[in-house]
Every structure is written in C-alpha cells, then in structure tokens.
C-alpha cells in the first residue's frame, strides 16, 4: 500500500474566495512568523511553502533601480500630457516590464510604490518632478489612469499592486521628518485628501505610504486619518507601507515617543502594516514588535490585522495561483511598442509656452543648439537605467541633418592651478565605462563610487575641465572623456562618474574665496581638496589654494555659433540630482546665473532664439525678447527625438501646464504654509498675474469653442460644447471645463477644474464633448457643521483652453442646503474649525486623535469663527486648554469679554484642563479668540 497525498490546505485552493484563503493561511502561521511579516523583507516560511516577499518596487515612470528598463517622462511630464488614456498605457507597459524583469531577477518586486499623488502646491518643493499637478482633480485623474495600467484589467489577479505616495500634505524636503504641516479642515478635505480619495475609490490601489512629515503636530505614520478616512473609501484590504526609516524617526528625530517599542506599536495600531526600516535587516523591527507585544502594547489580533493586509495583496498578485495568474508569463520588455509609447509620451508632454511665429522651424533652417542640457538625457532618483537615449542635440541632428546643425554646450573651460604652479591632471584610464546603477540595486543609496581608476595628480601639464555652475555655487567638473570628477570612499578625487547622482552626490564642489585664490570644497563629504604626493584627495587638513584659469567662457562659444545660424535653440533647465531633489528644496524660481548668461549671449547674437526648458519644475524667466519658449519635463529615453519633432512641426504641441508658473519669488507663499485658502495658493486661489497660468499651452493650430449647454439632471450637471480645429494642421486640443461659485458665503476657488478632454482634430474637424459634473463635486467642507454642504445659488460653468483662456461661460442655479449659524450652545467651537486665523498653527490634541490650536512661542495669534448662534443667551464660556498662556474671547469687533489663564502650566502638552469665566452674548455674532503664549486650545464651549 502507498500513503495517499494529503489534501492541499484551503489557502492553496484557487476556487475559494481570497478572504477565506487568507484566514486559513493566517491561522497556520506562528506568532513569530507573523511578526516577521511586518518588515519590508518578509522571510520565507518553508514549512508552508511560502516564498519570501518584499514590499516596494519603485516604478514612478518606469521600473527603477533594477537596471535597464524603458524610461518614460517624469511624472510631472505625464501630468502635462493631460491624457489619461496615454498614462494608462504607460502604466500597463511599466507593469509588464516589472513582470518580465522579475522573471529573470527575483529582486524585482510587484508591490510597486507608485504613483505619487502629493499635490504640487509649491513649485520650490524638491520633489516637484514626482507629482502630477497642483490640482486635485487632474492629479486623481492621472493617478487613477496610471494605477489602472499598473493593476491590469483582470477581474481577480493584479499585474502589479500600486501603493500611493506620500500620505499626507507633504511638500517640503527642508526638515521633512520634523516639520509639521498645519492643515485646516477645509484644506484637508477639499484639497489634500481629495486626490488620494478619488484615486482609491477608483479601485486600482493596493495601499498607501505615509510621508515623513507631521500633519497638525502628529507624525503621518500614526495618523488617525488612515483609519478615519483612507480605510472607509474602499472595501479592499489596503496595505500601508512605511517610508524608509520613518518608524525609527518616531522616537529618534521626532521624539514623539520615548521608546521604539511604543512608537512601533502606535504605528501598527494606527494602520501601518509593513515597516521599511534598517534596510534588509528585519531583526530590529522584529525585536521591537516582539517587545511591544510582551509589554502588552500590542495584541496578537493587532498583528494579525496587519499580516492579513499583506497576504491579501500577495493573493491578488497571483503568488499562490501561478497556473491561474494570467500575468505569470508576461515577457514584454523594451518592445517596439514600448519604445514607440515612450516617444509618444515625450511628444505629448511638450508644452509650447510662447510662440511669435518662429515655430515650427523651416526644414532647411540652420540651427545652433546650445546650452548645458543640449546634449544631455538626464535621469532622476526614480529612473531606471537607459537602454535607449536621445538628447535634444541628437534629436535635432537626426531631424534636420547634422550638416545644418552647430553645437556649443556653453560650459566654461578651465584649468585648476595649484599654489605651487602645477595644474590638476586627469590621468589616462584603461578601465571600461560604467553606468551608475546598471546592475540594479535594492537600495541605490548604498552604491559606492569607483576606485578602479587612477586619482587626479598635479603636474606641469593640466587637464582642461568643463565647469558648470548649477546655481547656489554648486559646481561640477567634467574631464575631456566625459567623466565627472567624483570622490569615492577612499577620499581620492577621480574622473569616474558618468553623471552626477546618488543619494549623497559625490560629484559636486564649491569654490570658496581664500587669499588670492579659492579653496575647493567637496560638498558630499564637506572636506576640502588637497594635493599630496600620492594624488589629489579630500581631507580635513592642508587644503590646496587654487587659481581658476578660464581658457574659454561658455558665453563666447555660444555667441559664435549663434551668430551663424538661422535660429538658436537654447536648452536650459536642471539636473534632477542637484539643487532641487529629494532631501533638498529649491530656494528660487530663477534659472541658475550661468544659464541666464548663456541665454543672454545667444539672444544678443541672434534675435531668433528659442528657449527650451527641460526641467523638473517651473522657472521664472524673462520672456521679453524671446520669440518662442517651450517646456518639457525630463522626457526619458525619447526626450530629444520628441523635442525635435515638435520643433519641426511633425507634431503639433499640445501639452498643458499642470501647475501655475509664477512670475517671481515674491508671488510664492512660505514653503511651510500649507493653507492654500488663506495663503491664496495655486490657480484655485492665486489673485496675482502668473507668468503662465494652470492649463496653459499653445498649438500650431487654432481652435474655436461653441454651443455650450448645461442642464441639471439626477444630481449632476450635464455639460456639452463643441471644439473645432480652425487651423491648417492636424493637432490635439486639451479642452478644459471649470466651475466657480458666483457669490460664495466663504472663500471658494476662483475657478476649479471639473473635467478635461484631449482630442485630436484634423483641419476643419468639429467634435462635441460631453461632461458629467456631480453636484457633490461642487460642495465645500462646512466647518460650522463639520460636513460637506452644497451651497444654493448661481454657479458658473466655463469652457476653454486654460484656466485663464476661457472661451465660453454660462451660469446655472442649483438647489442646495442654505447655510446656518454655528450652534455654539449645543456644540461649542472646536478650535481648528475656524473661518480665518492669524499667526497660529494646528497641533495634535492627543497623540492618537484630535486637533488643537496654538500661537507661536511667546507670540500672539487670533482665530475667527463667523456666525455663532448663542440663541436666547449664554452667561458662561469654558475653554479646554493645555500649557500656559491666556485665551481672550471677544464678540464681533469689540473688546475681550472674557480672559482665561491657567493657574499652572500642567504636566505637559496633553495635560488639558477646563477653565470657565463669565461671558454674556445672545443672538448671532462673530467670535474672535486671541491666544497669548504657547498655550494649546482644543475647544470653546458656551452655557447658561
């Protein structure tokens, strides 16, 4: 007799619902095994046949960090296409390549940490390149398209499992792990939550990643909004993955908890399911969770909840059903279709900002291509390694013919002369070229610099170096063979890097005046360059004093080629690894001074100068004497080909700005001012004159709009209008629909995007576009009631080519719910539910939930609450406060009617007490609350 094969456990049965299979598998895991599942790198469980699993695979605009892959335009460039169908197809291509790459390299993960749905509220944010738009509606539309492409369309099995980044209100790199975004309820609901909510509700999101920052004084990794908001938007088990190192920050840099055990337990209870901390070493997190459980801070049921969410994602990815998973054999990688899609995306991302008729260029034009980015195809931190590469210069060569194109990069050519009269010299190198990250790395921050090349020396014969000033005094030096000067772990200076890059960039320097010359500081190590007998290195002692000998000024080279051309193309912008990137915000909208000089030199030599900005963010530039300006984000592998085809008129540009381009730094709010309403930020509220408005973009064709019709039906506005191509070329138009409240009772957007459509029209072709605008999208968060409310009255519907280029408008009357005074006798006033404020910030009422308001240390702040109904009258006011200071209560514009001061400061910021004082008021009045000192106000109540 032979033993029969034991039946497969229920979790292996593909015919059972996922929920039952997850429950069965969970019941078979030991407590220690389940705790192991809480780290990013989940170990295998061999006794159950479970493979190891990793949360997190970067895939923002292509599979990143894991070697060669198709590289699409940056996320902000995909946003500029305003094309959801295109972005969905990009997501499909990226997810197919992730599957194909995983088939040959198990390090490639299928739980992809993309897209980023943080709103581009502030253009100086260092990670502007990662978001889609400043507008919640456009952001959610593009993000939804991308997640649907990443997920795939199979009803059961997902091609990849997208995680949205970064929850919540995260737009600053400066002090990003210790700063708190003060987000009032209206901004929270109407702006920051909205992009996440609409994307999650669309049904193709597997989870979210909390951001490093705090919101209203509480770290995002213990945010109550994960439970109160996120998990109410879908019935799917969402997996919340921490950002790298953020769990440790809770006790380290943020000092929010006394111990790591308390911090880890609090994050898990708040809803964090997977802890990304200490790289691949899971022992630290496992130890913290185990100790938290032993101390009674966590129950096994709490751990089960988090593990269940991870298992749910793994089942959806088909891990346990390889025979049924339709994506198992996906092999599409670097296909002709993917290459064509990369070019299409790059073409559609180009925005024509200004054109006085110089574009498109004549096919026989003699073109001078100049600028520091003219022969570059820049990557960013979340890019894959290029398989194909097209720079603007290469694209123009290919399209117009090399014989008709001249090139000047515009770098300064320099020698570095030592105090001994010798010059820095780059020795000849026999080693092969290497591209940073080509082999793939789970953590590219750990990639080391090259040490197989000889260090620089000093001698009678110097090497001419290409010097670029990227702004803020940040310099790079490039050797004649194209390699950048870099510093490896041994401290030696070598010409070894293919591009500046890395988590800590080792290719940047700063010249510091010293005596009759300059010290050369290496920014990556903070050390100065010195010259010794065994070569050039960085060290703490004996810095060398250099004389900078300029052999050619970049402006001179640019002027020479510009003067001989019919038209000049100046390609300017940023290197995504320098002066505006993750960990570093920009300080200005201006172009770096060296690039402004090159632009002036080109323009002075040839009035037919076209500026092409290739950048991760907006700039403020002087347009006065420029006949044409274009912008594109770093467009991936097809950047140059796409730009050249637009310049030649093979493609009519139809990209549109996904965020406001401000004219001057003075137009910007503070980087940490997250109150888009009170600070009048973004196109929604900005009242100044922008350089270019949200939605702006020109075409080689012209379009007319007509026949606007609106009807109210079944709780929605049914809007239609026609668009006709009145030009002479086939072109895309991005028709945009906006709404505005005509006479709002509270500050509302000047206009707000309600829909858009990118359409292709031949000359003379006309199309009718239809939109459905749910009346719920016209609601606002009524702080007096603590809920959404549709205000009755007149609403304008506007159609046009940008937020400012409105071609059609009409008004419609909507029934709604009339406003009502605040019922302060019954509910009192939650401090954060103000209508207006001055010099205050919102902080955490407790470490788990609730808000309070405080004034700056030693300062004074005011809160205004409009329309407070005291009914027949009150005689007493009570305040719930913590800390020391004074609360003054006044009615309308009168003097303080009550003043309340705690007798003692209490034991800490969460030690609240209730104070009472006499206060008389009846009827409806505005209430003004003044805070003096660092006291925290949570609530104001009225009685009597």
Total number of helical segments? 18
Counting DSSP E segments of at least 2 residues, the number of strands comes to 46
Oligomer state of the chains in this structure: single chain
In helices, the fraction of residues equals 10-25%
**Cα-atom radius of gyration:** 30 Å
Strand content: 25-35%
Give the uncertain stretches in residue-range form. Answer: none
Distance between the termini: 89 Å
Biggest sheet descriptor: 6 strands, mixed
Overall 3D geometry? Answer: globular
Structural class assignment:
alpha+beta
| Residue-averaged pLDDT | 96
Placed side by side, the strands forming the largest sheet appear as 9-26-25-24-10-11
Description of the molecule:
With 944 residues, the protein is of the alpha+beta class. It has 18 helices and 46 strands. The strands form 13 sheets. Strands 9-26-25-24-10-11 form a 6-stranded mixed sheet, sandwiched between helices. Strands 16-15-12-23-20-19 form a 6-stranded antiparallel sheet. Strands 36, 38, 39, 41, 44 and 46 form a 6-stranded antiparallel sheet that branches. A hairpin with a 2-residue loop joins strand 27 (703-713) and strand 28. Helix 5 (136-151) runs parallel beside helix 6 and helix 14 (554-563) runs parallel beside helix 15. The longest helix is centred in the N-terminal third of the chain and has 21 residues, at 84-104.
């Amino acid at each position: 007799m032979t033993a029969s094969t034991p039946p497969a456990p229920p979790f292996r049965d593909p015919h059972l619902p996922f929920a039952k299979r997850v429950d069965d598998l969970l019941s078979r895991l030991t407590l220690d095994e389940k705790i192991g599942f809480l780290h990013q790198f989940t170990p295998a469980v061999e006794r159950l046949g479970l493979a190891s699993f990793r949360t997190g695979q970067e895939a923002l605009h292509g599979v990143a960090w894991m070697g060669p892959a198709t590289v699409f335009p940056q996320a902000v460039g995909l946003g500029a296409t305003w094309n959801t169908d295109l972005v969905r197809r990009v997501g499909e291509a990226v997810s197919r390549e992730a599957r194909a790459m995983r088939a040959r390299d198990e390090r490639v993960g299928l739980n992809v940490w993309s897209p980023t749905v943080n709103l581009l509220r502030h253009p100086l944010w260092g990670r502007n390149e990662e978001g889609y738009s400043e507008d919640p509606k456009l952001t959610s539309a593009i993000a939804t398209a991308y997640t649907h492409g990443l997920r795939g369309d199979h009803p059961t099995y997902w091609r990849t499992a997208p995680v949205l980044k970064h929850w919540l209100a995260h737009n600053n790199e400066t002090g990003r792990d210790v700063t708190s975004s003060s987000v009032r309820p209206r901004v929270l609901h109407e702006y920051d939550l909205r992009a996440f909510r609409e994307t999650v509700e669309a049904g193709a999101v597997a989870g979210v990643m909390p951001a490093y920052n705090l919101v209203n004084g509480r770290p995002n990794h213990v945010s109550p909004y994960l439970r109160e908001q996120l998990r109410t938007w879908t019935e799917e088990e969402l997996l919340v993955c921490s950002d790298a190192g953020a769990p440790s920050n809770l006790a380290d840099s943020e000092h929010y908890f006394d111990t790591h055990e308390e911090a880890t337990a609090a994050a898990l209870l708040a809803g964090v399911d997977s802890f990304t901390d200490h790289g691949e070493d899971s022992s630290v997190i496992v130890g913290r969770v185990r100790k938290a459980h032993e101390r009674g801070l966590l129950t096994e049921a709490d751990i089960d909840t988090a593990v269940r969410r991870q298992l749910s994602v793994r089942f959806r990815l088909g891990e346990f059903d390889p025979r049924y998973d339709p994506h198992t054999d996906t092999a599409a990688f670097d296909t002709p279709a993917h290459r064509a899609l990369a070019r299409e995306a790059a073409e559609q991302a180009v925005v024509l900002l200004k054109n006085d008729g110089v574009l498109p260029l004549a096919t026989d034009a003699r073109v001078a291509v100049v600028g520091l980015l003219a022969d570059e195809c820049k990557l960013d931190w979340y890019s894959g390694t290029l398989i194909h590469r097209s720079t603007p210069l290469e694209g123009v060569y290919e399209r117009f013919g090399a014989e008709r194109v001249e090139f000047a990069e515009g770098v300064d050519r320099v020698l570095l002369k030592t105090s001994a009269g010798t010059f820095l010299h780059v020795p000849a190198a026999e080693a092969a070229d290497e591209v940073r990250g080509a082999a793939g790395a789970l953590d590219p921050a750990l990639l080391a610099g090259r040490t197989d090349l000889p260090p620089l020396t000093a001698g009678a014969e110097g090497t001419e170096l290409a010097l670029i000033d990227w702004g803020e005094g940040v310099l790079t030096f490039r050797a004649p063979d194209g390699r950048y000067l870099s510093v490896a772990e041994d401290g030696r200076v070598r010409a070894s890097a293919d591009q500046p890059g890395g988590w800590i960039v080792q290719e940047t320097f700063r010249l510091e005046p010293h005596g009759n010359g300059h010290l050369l500081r290496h920014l990556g190590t903070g050390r100065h360059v010195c010259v010794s007998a065994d070569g050039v290195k960085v060290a703490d002692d004996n810095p060398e004093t250099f004389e900078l000998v300029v052999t050619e000024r970049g402006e001179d080279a640019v002027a020479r080629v510009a003067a001989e051309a019919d038209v000049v193309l100046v390609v300017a912008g940023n290197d995504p690894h320098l002066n505006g990137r993750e960990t570093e915000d920009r300080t200005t909208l201006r172009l770096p001074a060296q690039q402004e000089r090159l632009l002036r030199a080109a323009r002075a030599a040839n009035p037919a100068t076209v500026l092409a900005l290739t950048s991760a963010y907006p700039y403020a530039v002087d347009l006065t004497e420029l006949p044409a300006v274009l912008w594109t984000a770093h467009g991936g592998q097809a950047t140059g080909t796409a730009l050249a085809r637009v310049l030649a008129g093979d493609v009519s540009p139809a990209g549109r700005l996904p965020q406001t381009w401000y004219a001057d730094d003075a137009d910007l709010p503070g980087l940490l001012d997250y109150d888009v309403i009170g600070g009048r930020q973004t196109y929604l509220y900005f009242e100044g004159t922008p350089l270019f408005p949200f939605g702006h973009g020109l075409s080689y064709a012209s379009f007319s709009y007509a026949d606007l019709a609106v009807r109210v039906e079944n709780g929605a506005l049914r809007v239609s209008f026609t668009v006709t191509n009145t030009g002479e070329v086939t072109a895309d138009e991005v028709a945009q629909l906006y709404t505005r409240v005509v006479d709002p009772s509270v500050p509302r957007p000047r206009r707000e995007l309600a829909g858009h459509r990118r359409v292709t029209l031949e000359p003379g072709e006309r199309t009718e576009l239809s939109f459905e605008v749910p009346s719920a999208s016209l609601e606002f968060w009524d702080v007096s009631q603590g809920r959404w409310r549709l205000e009755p009255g007149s609403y304008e519907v506007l159609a046009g080519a940008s937020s400012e280029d409105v071609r059609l408008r009409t008004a419609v009357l909507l029934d709604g719910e009339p406003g009502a005074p605040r019922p302060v006798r019954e509910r009192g006033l939650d401090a954060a539910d103000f209508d207006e404020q001055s010099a205050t910030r919102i902080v955490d009422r407790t470490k788990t939930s609730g808000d309070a308001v405080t004034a700056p240390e030693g300062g004074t702040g005011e809160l205004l609450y409009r329309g407070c109904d005291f009914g027949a009258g009150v005689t007493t006011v009570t305040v719930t406060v913590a800390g020391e200071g004074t609360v003054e209560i006044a009615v309308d514009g009168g003097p303080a009617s009550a003043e309340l001061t705690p007798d003692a400061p209490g034991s800490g910021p969460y030690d609240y007490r209730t104070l009472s004082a006499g206060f008389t008021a009846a009827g409806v009045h505005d209430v003004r609350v003044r805070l003096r000192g660092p006291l925290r106000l949570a609530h104001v109540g009225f009685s009597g």
